[in-house]
Structures are given as structure tokens and as C-alpha cells.
Amino acid sequence: MIRKKKTAPRLHLFNKIILFFNGFFAVALLLSYAASIVDPQLFWPLSFLGLAYPILLFINIFFVGYWLCGQIKLALISFLTILIGWKFLTSYIGFRESTAIGVPKSSQNLIRVMTYNVHEFKQFGDKNDIRTKNLFLDIIREEQPDVICFQEFFTRRRNEYDFKKAIANILHTPHYYYKPIKGNSYETIGLAIFSKFPILNTGSLTFEKHNNNESIFVDIKTNSRVIRVYNVHFQSIRFKPEDYRYLDNIKSQVSTDMESPRRIGERLKQAFIKRSSQVKIVKAHTLKCQLPYLITGDFNDTPISYTVNSILSGGLINSFREKGSGLGITYNGDFPNFQIDYILASTPFVVKNYRIISKKISDHYAVRSDLELK
Rounded to 5 degrees, what are φ and ψ at 176? Predict the structure, then answer.
């Protein structure tokens, strides 16, 4: 008796429609991976797909679950697409238990590094006040970093808002480098690096004239050798209040406003392009560096972006990908609430732990990592 071969059940019209959309979103997810290598100055639309990666990822996870209920082989379409981008998935989500629950360093041989965009030491949209000041200082006092990099660092020449003096006192160190970017003779805002180790050399990288974004660096003499630490603040999106109002509104209701999406899209496009030129300046400088180095700061871009991966292509490692746990969200604002603050390390460094300090004071969370220099 000849047995008839089993044939796969035919797809009904509804499933054919689902399969079409599955293919569309699988291709979109694949294209989002290309955002990591395609320069926005050459072709910026892919950067938008890169920004949409988390959404595209979850849509494809939905399709995997859907097909597992009946058409198991079709689940491979999205499953394999997700697998191709595994390195990006593990840059957004840490599939491990936290390695940094305890605050004290496990060894004095480790270097504790922090980066923190402090939003001028005030809560978003508010003025400076003593209560908020103390909340910021409490974090620094508790974590006791060996090196801390600040973006949007605010200070006055004297009185209770002399943050240079306050932080130097908390860390018990005279070693810091502060580069004002804007301000007056009384108060300024800029980039700062504080170190418990002696600073041997300092410098800055100007991206363009009349721009509030820059990078600074210091050469530090640690217990074992000299290292360089870069503190970067790349181009932000520069959303206006009306942009945030629009984003808030579309969460609760359908909007017919067509001008706001165009305006927001243009801001995003210009930010992608500007960060592309800025990261090239930093990368070119690191290629001449003969020291082990760290690049920390506010990249204003996601782990799949050209900005981040251009730096990583030089052989650096992302501290979150090495030791991070859970969702790597470092931005406390409405958008983009992803990982945009980083501690990246060159190969002589080994990441021992990683922590996002999720205290809602600034519009960014503080990030810290303990590293060992081999």
C-alpha cells in the first residue's frame, strides 16, 4: 500500500495576508541592521529604520508566535531575521542577572567609570534648586566613581551652585578638567571630567563653530598605567515644546496634524547627519591615540546607529553588551527612551560590571561600570 505524502495545510486568505505583512516587516528589520554601517550623510532614510528597530523587532516576535500556533515552518521567516541581528538585540537587552547590585568596588584594582548628562543639575523644565542639587550629589557620593564624565555640566563661580567645588569635595580630589561651552563670567555650561587619579594632559575636539556639542579628553595616570578618557556629547535632536506636545497627543488620540511629523522628521534627519560628521572627528582622533582609552558620554543615538557602530568598529566594546542586564534604557525623557549614553572601552579593558542608576532627576540616567585594565 502506497502512503500518500502529507502536504502542508494550505494557507487561507487571512493567513496569506499575514504572510505578506510578515515578509514586509522581516525585510524592514533586515534593512534596519544596515543603519549601523550606512553613513547618514550618504543615505539618511536607513537611519529612521534603525531608530525603529525595537518596534520592528517586537512585530517580528509577534509573527514568530503567530506561526508557531499552526504553520511552524513559517515562523522561521522572522526567527532567522531576528537571529541575524543578534548582536543588536543583545545591545538593547541584557539577558543576564545584574552584575552590579552592590555599590562598593569588588577590587581596588578596578577603575570605576561613570557618565552622566546632568541637564545643568536641574530637573527637566525646572530651575536650579537646593533639593535637586543634593539629589544629584547624593548619587555621586554613593557611587564614588574613580572617573566621572559630565555632559551639560552647570556651575557658578561661587555660592551653593559652584558644582566644580562641590564634586571635587565629594570625590576628595583636586583633579578635573572643565571646558565651558556657553555662559558668562558668572555661570557656565559645558563638559567636565573629574578623576581621583592625576590628570597629565587635557584636550578638546570642536565639532563646528556655534555648536553646543563637543568632546573633551584627559590622560590619566592610574595605579598601573596611563589611559585616556574621552567625554563626548553628540548632536541632539533639539525637539521643541510643540514637538513633545505632539508626541504626547498621538499616544492617546489619532492626529490629523501633518506639519508636526514633517518637522520632527526633519529634526531627526539633521541630527543623524550631524552626528555622522561629529563621530568621524572623534574616531580620527582615537586612531592616533597610543594609550588604552575609553569613550563615554551622551551619544544621542541608539545601539544600532551608525554613530555608535562607527566607534565600535575600531575594536571597542560596549559595557552594556558585556555586562548589562534587562532593557538598556538610559534616557528618562519621552523620546527616544532607549540607550543613548555609553561607556565604550578599547581592548586592554575588561568590563566587570555595569549599572544604569535609574533615578529620575535629570532627563538622563547615570551609567557606571567597573573595568579592569589588563
Answer: -160, 160
Return the ∠ at Cα 338 (arms to 333 and 343), rounded to 5°.
105
Got the DSSP string for 213-245? -EEEEEEEE-SS-EEEEEEEEPPP----HHHHH
Phi-psi group of 277: left, alpha or beta (phi > 0 → left; psi -120 to 50 → alpha; rest → beta)? alpha
CB 187 within 8 A of CB 154: yes
Q: Which of 10-19, 278-287, 349-358 has the lowest mean pLDDT?
A: 10-19
- Nearest Cα neighbor of 173 from 146, 152, 206 is 146
SS (H, E, C) 102-136: CCCCCCCCCEEEEEEECHHHCCCCCCCCHHHHHHH
CB 275 within 8 A of CB 262: no
CA 157 to chain centre: 31
Classified as helix, coil or strand, 362 is coil
Beta strands in 68-210 (DSSP E): 93-94, 111-117, 147-156, 175-183, 187-195, 199-206
Distance set, CA 34 to CA 27, 40, 43, 46, 331 (Å): 11, 11, 11, 7, 24
Query: Looking at domain 111-373, does it have CATH number 3.60.10.10?
Result: yes
Residue 244, pLDDT above cutoff 80: no
| pLDDT tens figures, 181-198 | 988 888 999 999 999 999
Strand order through the sheet with 226-233: 199-206, 214-221, 226-233, 293-298, 341-345, 317-318
What angle is formed at CA 138 by the lines to CA 302 and CA 123, rounded to 5 degrees?
55
- Domain map of the chain by residue range? 13-84, 111-373
The CA distance from 202 to 285, in Å, is: 13
AA identity, residue 194: F
Going by C-alpha positions, the residue among 165, 153, 149 that lies closest to residue 128 is: 153
Furthest CA-CA distance within the chain: 97
Q: Which amino acid is at 251?
A: K
